[in-house]
């Protein structure tokens, strides 16, 4: 008869049990890790115990239970099987039954790795490692031989997930949407730089929502952008208050067609970022302090005064910076009409920079991609790594409620938190 568990039995002290196991392993000279290490043996015992429990459930009686005699099916010999786990290869004994009807779920038939291994592969791929580098990693760290032919199907499995993510429903309204580009090298006959565009929305709850990824060829026009924005709108984003972009041909016209009420704003973040590209890194902190009064000025006149002071200090050393700001000035100044809380949202770079840093790291590690889909898959995996949901959520601004109130006043009747 099967032993029943005592519902008031004292729970196992896991720490005490672990200490006992470690002490016993040390006494017997058993290593913690390695092919014959303690973790390997524990994993083997846990998997085999689980498989035995599945067999008991399948047959309806315990091992050696006389009630099983004459039942028509019984335990048969076991077969050895090696599975790849998060701690390396583990050899287990899988039970079998006489009529071969047992279908284990813990370690399924023909399954050669536990699901946690797939997540390790996806995590390494998200960091930009190639299939060869991932195979070498498993060999070095786990002492396990994993072929490239095994790794590629694991990463390819996310293509369906990526398609689902790219088509998921979106919020009805976004106070701000940023459109940015990351450049990747794709070998299509010859290696060429291609842009992949990412749209990042700020939700009415003050969270970053990565809306999608779209590959381009560098020659995008209004038709391309109309298709991209229509896709976003068809997924539920009926209204956007401000679209922040930078020098993308045809995009402002497409924005006006898809969201007629949206304000198109030149990206102040890009303007600031491009400023530092002309200057020596040792001056970045000082230059950032001197530039901040320009884009935080209360009026255009005050901003112009601060920029004259900035130019007087840095203009002779870096004339290209002065020229860049002069050329962009007419597109920059509409930003100064916004409430200070709205400006903070537009100039809050952390949520964008953390995403771009992951993208750049993954792209730089790979060097180049064999196809457009391979590049999109890599960038999606980097997005996926930010959040298990794949949405890459992060708080956009700590003081979100004042910003939400400012948006509700500036765009009256269009911001409805409860409706999202």
Q: What does this protein look like?
A:
A hairpin with a 1-residue loop joins strand 3 (173-188) and strand 4. The protein contains 16 helices and seven strands. With 420 residues, the chain is of the alpha/beta class. The protein has helices at 14-27, 38-59, 115-126, 131-142, 148-156, 158-166, 222-234, 251-258, 268-277, 284-295, 300-314, 319-332, 340-346, 350-366, 372-386, 400-410; strands at 75-85, 88-97, 173-188, 190-202, 208-215, 239-245, 263-266. The protein has a five-stranded mixed beta sheet, sandwiched between helices. The chain has a two-stranded antiparallel sheet with strand order 1-2. 48% of the residues lie in helices and 16% in strands. It is elongated, with a radius of gyration of 29 Å. Helix 10 (284-295) packs antiparallel against helix 11. Residues 1-10 have low confidence and may be disordered. The chain folds into three domains: 21-112, no CATH class; 115-156; 172-419.
